[in-house]
Structures are given as structure tokens and as C-alpha cells.
Amino acid sequence: MSPSTTRSPAKASGLDCRLAVLGADVRLTPHRREVFDVLAASTDHPTAYDILDRVKSRSPGMSLATVYNCLEHLTSHGLIKLVHLERGQSRYCANLHEHVHFHCETCGKVIDAHPNADFDPAKFWNLPAGTRVTRTDLAIHGTCQNCAAKS
Amino acid sequence: MSPSTTRSPAKASGLDCRLAVLGADVRLTPHRREVFDVLAASTDHPTAYDILDRVKSRSPGMSLATVYNCLEHLTSHGLIKLVHLERGQSRYCANLHEHVHFHCETCGKVIDAHPNADFDPAKFWNLPAGTRVTRTDLAIHGTCQNCAAKS
DNA sequence: TTTAGAATTAGAATGATTCTAACTGCATTG
DNA sequence: CAATGCAGTTAGAATCATTCTAATTCTAAA
């Protein structure tokens, strides 16, 4: 956990790789890389279990604990986002563009929705003077296109 | 759970009371009433455990299971709202006015923030045609006034 | 008063996540 | 090159919030 290690973090070996995201140079081990790749290739906001499933073809030995470790590392370094839509399993996404999550209460699907205008939610709400905002999470719940058509 | 009971719901006894909220006439047992009252008197978004604590002075025998049952009943009847801000315990609030939640990442406090203009968040986001929105949840994370002043 | 259904209870069960302790392997130091 | 140390990884235990189950109590209708 401590970033103040004497070990040089700059030297990359064959088992080590890096990823430059948003200007940050993040060191990725093979497992972290695979977890990230799975997430980057997914648009359905997989859970930790989903990710373990998808990673298993390439890394059959990976454990759930490692998936959680990797997700924690990637989240804390800003490469992915953690989404809480309801009680139960957390979901993850690699979409770093500003967006919100639409959650279909019928089929459980989660889709990203992007803003159609430059929009800062924090401006619309009366927060006490001196409040510092680091991030906002907007979740929209309802019925998706498909489920709405069926009913 | 079924609302289609033959039992007349209109007859109230000394141990039964009702509450008219938003036009709905909701039947409240003493325990449900106490849970609701505790929540209505709280502005700090208590968890189920917090509520059990606060209810205990009036109902020493109440169990956590009953608190959860009451919260479920009140939530499904629209008398209170369930808030998920992060992994861990859910929080509840009895503020039914349109508002969002500000969560201080330093002290953990949650405060309600009200809109300063008539505002529908769903309008700002590109949702597929045919999507039906039932509710939106906006959580703002950051540092509150007090914690910001200390740092 | 009998009976049925709803509410309540304690404790067990579940499910997601985190923790612990042991192990592996690379990389720096001697 | 060998020794040492630390990050990464692992399986499984532990924890925590919540839900379920079965038994009990209460209320109201027949």
C-alpha cells in the first residue's frame, strides 16, 4: 500500500507493463492488466464475479481475492469507476467520460448515458458555503426501451 | 405482502394508527409508527442499527428484524426513502421533498441539498427513446464545510 | 370464542466483501 | 551469483449487512 518504497518503480520487466491514462502513468501487473482489459471490453458493468468469469479463459488460476485486489488498485488509481446502484454486488466500469448510469428495474441491465450539454450537477444544488465537491454520482432508475416495449 | 386482503383495513384500534402522506392512507402499526417517527425526527440519515438504537427507549424489545421489516414497509409505501451512498450499510431518510445527498468523505456525514431551480436531471442525459424514468438518485461526494475548514 | 391473517421475534442463513497468513517470484544489495 | 526483501497472489476464514425461517403473539372477523 505504501507508495514510498525504495524499489524503483520505473524498471519494467516482461511481466510488468504500464498504462498511461489521463496523464497518469500507472504500473500494471499482468493480472491487473487482464482485469482492466476485460472491463475495457465490457459495456455491461460487470460485477467482481463476472470479471473473474471472463478473466478465467486467460488466467485460469486467478482467485476472487485477486480480482478484488486488482479492482481496488485500478479504482484508487482512477483507471476504472465503482458504481453502486442498489444493495448487493457493486459494479465496475472503465468508461471515464462524464456519464451517468441508467438502471433498468425490470431486466437489471445498466447502460451509460452521456450528457447532451455541458452540465455540472453541483451547480443546481444549494450546498453550504465552503463545501468541496470531488465527484457526483447520478443514477437513473426506470424501465429500458426493450422492457418498456414488452409491457 | 398482498394488498388484496379480505380484512377491512379501515377499522383502526388503539394499537393501530394511520398516516396520510402524499394522498396515500398508510396503515401503521405501533412499531412502524415509531420507526417512522424516529426517522422523521432525524436529519442525519440513520442506518437500520441507528434506528434500532433510537427506538429502544420507547420499545426496548424491538428487534433488528422488525426494524428492517418496518423500513421495508415504509419504503415500499413511499413514506421514506432508501439511500445507497457507498458499500456498507444503507441509510434512510424521511425527507420526501426533491433533494440530493451530499456525503462528506472525511467525517461520513450526509446532508440533504435542495435544488435552487426547477430542475429535471433526466432531461440532461441522452437516454434511448422509449426509456421510462421512475426516479433519479444524485449523490454528491466531497468534503463538508467543517472538514474543509480544518484542513 | 374460534380462526385466520398480519406483525413480531430470535436466530439461522445468505451473500458480498475484506482480512489473514502463507507462498511466489522479481529485483536490489552484497 | 546468492541472499534478502517486498509487491503480488492465493485460499480460505472472518466480517458485516441483510434476508429468511419458523415459532409466537396480536387483532379482527366469523
Textual characterization of the structure:
Two copies of one chain form a homodimer. By secondary structure, the first copy, chain A, is an alpha+beta fold. Chain A has two domains: 17-83, Orthogonal Bundle (Arc Repressor Mutant, subunit A); 97-150, Dna Ligase, domain 1 (2-Layer Sandwich), CATH 3.30.1490. Helix content of chain A is 25%, strand content 25%. The first copy, chain A, has helices at residues 30-40, 48-55, 64-76, 145-150; strands at residues 17-21, 24-28, 81-83, 91-93, 100-104, 110-113, 132-143. In chain A, helix 1 packs across helix 2 (48-55), helix 1 (30-40) packs across helix 3 and helix 2 (48-55) crosses helix 3 (64-76). Residues 1-16 and 20-24 of chain A have low confidence and may be disordered. At the A-B interface, strand 7 and helix 4 of A face strand 7 and helix 4 of B. Chain A binds a DNA duplex (30 and 30 nucleotides) through residues 5-8, 11, 13, 15-16, 29, 31-32, 47-49, 61-66, 68-69, 87-90.
